[in-house]
Structures are given as structure tokens and as C-alpha cells.
Amino acid sequence: xxxxxxxxxxxxxxxxxxxxxxxxxxxxxxxxxxxxxxxxxxxxxxxxxxxxxxxxxxxxxxxxxxxxxxxxxxxxxxxxxxxxxxxxxxxxxxxxxxxxxxxxxxxxxxxxxxxxxxxxxxxxxxxxxxxxxxxxxxxxxxxxxxxxxxxxxxxxxxxxxxxxxxxxxxxxxxxxxxxxxxxxxxxxxxxxxxxxxxxxxxxxxxxxxxxxxxxxxxxxxxxxxxxxxxxxxxxxxxxxxxxxxxxxxxxxxxxxxxxxxxxxxxxxxxxxxxxxxxxxxx
Length: 282
Ligand code: HEC
Ligand code: HEC
Description:
3 domains, mainly alpha, 14 helices, Cytochrome Bc1 Complex, Chain D, domain 2
């Protein structure tokens, strides 16, 4: 009897270690980038099982880029909508994908409300209550970003891989995406989720053993928020279009001035004086 129970327990713990349920699989593999009910780093997955076929979903989840490169219309459209952010290939089996899709399906009904509207919602921006504290946080974030301040756990600087257009830091790496408008796109929650969940393999390699603390993540999020706000000032000024759009009204104004200056001349042409002399002689 006791032996039966022991074996039963062993079998149970053995299977549970391998067969994770959909919720856990979703949380561990997808939750850094996806939520049900709103977008995070990637799209809201509410009702995705109704929008796409099962076959498509399996292909996309295993290798979204293969599908994008094959020219699949839906894959290309969603890739472009998310600013060509690459969803990394997911190292999950078909059975695990089925578990995840089942979880998404079962939890979509409760999250349907916000997903009904298909247009992309903007990420929520927390209110800045203390401007001075925020400015300090931005400053700290800038220093962490370019390495003037070391990370507590010794991770590499962000600027070794990423560039931002900011007065505060100069010349970042081009190994990874420019982060100037990241805050606008993925928001406070998205940035923090990337820094804690490390869903991108390159960042996982760099920070897995040197985790970024919550305070550091908050400072960097504040910095990226500031950068996204001032980006319209730091984006290189477009002189070429100034020449074109400034030039056309300029020419019109100049022509106007010339016609005023020469207004009198037109009347007093040589012909006019000859004409009036001849009129007189009649
Ligand atoms: C690094 C962040 C990231 C992770 C991790 C991630 N995704 Fe994605 N996912 C994205 C992005 C970004 C897109 C938008 C498409 C694109 O940019 O290629 C996307 C798109 C999708 C789509 C298409 C949605 C649609 O409306 O067609 C599905 C389905 C999807 N992901 C499922 C998953 C599942 C399931 C997992 C976990 C096994 C996962 N993703 C993990 C970022 C991620
Ligand atoms: C080893 C190189 C490397 C380092 C160091 C690194 N990243 Fe990344 N990061 C990447 C890669 C690769 C991606 C995936 C997107 C891409 O292909 O550029 C990424 C993606 C991101 C994204 C999502 C980009 C988007 O679409 O808006 C954010 C945010 C981000 N990184 C922030 C940071 C911050 C903050 C730091 C410093 C704490 C940092 N990264 C350090 C390589 C790096």
C-alpha cells in the first residue's frame, strides 16, 4: 500500500515537472511580451485563436520570421504594425503550443471587452507627481544607460548595443534597435517587462547573471520616457524640405515685391512717352 502511494507520488511529480500547464507556459515564455486584454511589448493575444488558424499559430510561434520572410500577408502586416520588432523563435513543442493556445482561448472570454476594438491602444503613461524626483530619476537613468553609473549587479551598459537620440548621451551602438521611441511604443510596462523578463536572447545573455534591479529599471524607464518626449527636438533637422517648402512662398513673396517696385515703371515705358508725344501732336 505504502509502496503504491510512493510510486504514485513519484509519477505525479515526474509528470508535473514535464507537463507544465498552459498558464505557466504562457507566463514563462510569452508573458514578458504578451498579455490578454491589452498590448504589452507585442500584441494583445485575446481571441487570437479566432483570428488565426491553428496551423498559422504554430508556425508563427515557432518561427515568426520564417513566416514573415515567406511573404505571408498576415505575418508581414503584424510585423510592420509592431515596428518590425522581431518576436524571437520560441523553443516550445507542438504539445506545449497547444496548451498555451488552450489557455489563451479559455481566458479570452474574460478579457474580450478591450480586445474588441482592433485599433492599437496607446500604452498607459503613469502620471508624474513629483517633477523634481522625476528629473533625478531621468538623470540616473541616463548615467546607467551610458555607463557613467555602474549597474549594481554589474551588467553591461545599454549603450554598447543601443543608440538613443538624446542631449544627455552620445553615440550608442548599432547592434540592436535604436530606443529613442521605445517608450512611446511599448510604454512604462513594456520597458520594465523587457528589463526584468529579458525576452530577447542577446539581452538574456548579458543580464541573466547580472539582473537589473527594480530601481534601476524605473530610472531607465524614466530616461527613455524623457528621450521619447524630446525626440522631436533631437531628430536631425530636415534642411532639404525647409528649402523646398520655404522656397516656394519665398518666390511668391519676392515676385509680389518686384511687381510693387516696378508698378510705376510699367506705365512709364518708352512706348508710353512716344505714344503721349504723338497724341499731343494731333
Ligand atoms: C520578445 C517579446 C516576445 C515574446 C517573448 C513572445 N512574443 Fe509573440 N509577438 C511579439 C511581437 C513583437 C509580435 C508582433 C509581430 C512581430 O513583430 O513579428 C508578436 C506576435 C505574436 C502573435 C501574432 C499575433 C497576431 O495578432 O497575429 C502570436 C500568436 C504570438 N506572438 C504568440 C506568442 C506566444 C504564444 C509566445 C510564447 C510562447 C510569444 N508570442 C512570445 C513579441 C513576443
Ligand atoms: C548585448 C546587447 C544588448 C545590451 C547590452 C542591451 N540590449 Fe536591449 N536589446 C538587444 C537586442 C538584440 C534587442 C532585440 C531588438 C533588436 O533586434 O534590436 C533588444 C531590445 C530591447 C528593447 C525593446 C526594443 C523596442 O522594440 O523598443 C528595449 C526597451 C531594450 N532592449 C532596452 C535595453 C536597455 C535599457 C539596456 C540596458 C540596461 C539594454 N537594452 C541592453 C540587445 C541589447
